[in-house]
Amino acid sequence: MKKYIQKNKLQTLISFLVISLFALSAQAHFGSKGPFGGTVTCSTVSVDTVYFGTAEGGVFESTSPALISWRARPVGLKSGKVTAVAHTGTRLFAATADSGIFIFNGKFGTDSYWNKINSGLTNLHVTSLIAINASTLMAGTTTGIFITTNSGNSWTAINTGLHHLEITALEKAGTRIFSTSMDGGVYYTDNNGNVWNDYNDFNTDDVGGTTSMSYNAISNQLLLVNEAGLFVTENANTATTSNFSLVSVGLPVNYAISDLSNDGTNWYLSSNAGVYTSAVTAVNWSELNTGLPTMDVKAIVPFKNGLVCGTVNKGIFKSDLPFTSWIDMNVNFNNLKVNAMYTGGPQFILVATENGVSISRNLGSKFIPSNKGFDDSLFVTDFTMASTLMVASTKTNGIYISLDSGLNWSKSNAGLASLNIKKLYQSNSILYAIDALNHIYKTSTPTLNWVIMQAGLPLNAIPTSLAFFGNNVLVATYGQGVFVKPLNGSTWSSYNLGLADWNVTAATALGNKIYVGTDGSGVFVSDTALASIHWSAAASTENAIPHTSLMNLNGLKIQAMATGAGYVWASYKGGLLATSTQGSSWIAGGNQFNLPSFTDVNKITFVDTRVFVSTENNGLYSNALSEIPTVPVTPTGILTSNNIDNTTLKIAPNPSTGSFRLNTEGIYGNVTEIIMYDYAGNIKGTFDGAQRQFDLNLESGMYVVLIKTDADGIYSQKIIIE
Prior knowledge:
mainly beta, Methylamine Dehydrogenase, Chain H, Immunoglobulin-like
């Protein structure tokens, strides 16, 4: 990885010191590592806080008036498809397209989460939500309107007088509430929905497609859009009849408006043609699009002395008023669909999102597009690396490789029967691929010539994962259990003795143990000796993380597994677990209150000092390995003794380039053996007990030096190699 990542010695030392300090805290939260951006669907403002709902990624908030950064608020939501957000002044509420309504009032220690509040709500496809007072809200659905007067403890249908029930928008105008529907018309109520009254003229009566409204309290006007155009009516909160006038001067042809708002003086709209504004007194629209990377804008909201807008794919932007240009405000807004991820070395990240492939060589501080040569960078399915060779798989064009650190990509499909490739693996510079036809291939590097390796597998086998141990490769399948073959062998053999669940989703290996995750029965573990493979259930993963248990997330449905930092890791929807005891116990892989509870955790990877997970619609999350509770100083499976001294042994310099000296003063007994491990638990070298000076040629990374004495003492220390 030295070819890809340059490290500054001083920065490394500072990072090492910071990591050591962070190790004192066991409750660090997972944080986003980008790339940032995503799709906004709705917004609301409460005093100094802006809230955005998203298409797939839940709710985000920024509590800074300058909107410096965003914080995900996804925990507890059963769906990321947010259609509306509302704030009563005391509580935040979110409506979803398929799971009803949630209130942000749960507490778990110092963390907050969403609670579902659907009692009486007979339709969970909620389209709109408004706060009327501190405890009263109205919700529009595809089959009518509901009201709560007790902050969502119960909902009641209020549809008397409504002739169109596919509600699209609700708007508050003083004590009056307006509603619109997809199939036609505008209605109002002056008594909190006891009775709804017709508020239509020929421009709106039975005219469909009303998707947004905005009430201007200063001018007492209601602005709305429907299939016939953009209209405004006067005296909106008092008049019992409407007189809508067309106000579309200055707008482009064939525009589609997604949101309307105002600040009293000016109207604002967002559309598939960007953002437009007009004075309220004389409507004549002009565009406000300078600085936007896309014209597809979904939400627009005045905030403080400016505007904030949310787009499709490209995230959030703000501008001061008077308008000059939009500025990217996407820090920690990680709402992109993630298709593939690879991390390694000290700071390297390779990721494919709905915006294409990008690379970071500074731990996510900056991502650079890496799409040259790709025909289908939006359909990448997996990444891996073999030495200096970057490899990507895609849905439509097979395998791509890069020989120049991601500057250029080229196809390498010789031998492949299908160009729809699902997963990639590598071991000892041998690449493996699984295609959509459930075939397994392998090839040596750097010249790729894929060879199929199906012999011994059932015809209906569905490979889900590969793992490597000793001189063997294991394939996990969904429905047929586990198969193993020697690396140089030609035939797979079934190894399912003791495996109670053959729906295997993931596999990994560490030391003398192999592990598989299942789709409903947790993790199973076995010795690695082929003659001794006999699976037994590891400790239950069902209730290992209290807050995910509280939310009824199924910890037994394992989605991914990996090995790193001496741990075996396993993920499930909303959770990440780790074991340093060969599966006899599990801990939470860091405080996960930022991980979405509605999305899969589909890959686990590492850099030298951090664990990464990728989620379907909320990008990459990461946590420092030093912050994982009870992280072992030496990799699991190496030692049989629990009496390890990790303070007496000294190493200098540390970090080093591989040349360092051991200081064994204070160690009791004579040193009999010196062993160096990487953080996956692999032995990198054994040395005579008398040696003190070392000059090693190792890849950049974190290692563990362990010494044993004739007095049965065991001492260890971390070392960073640059």
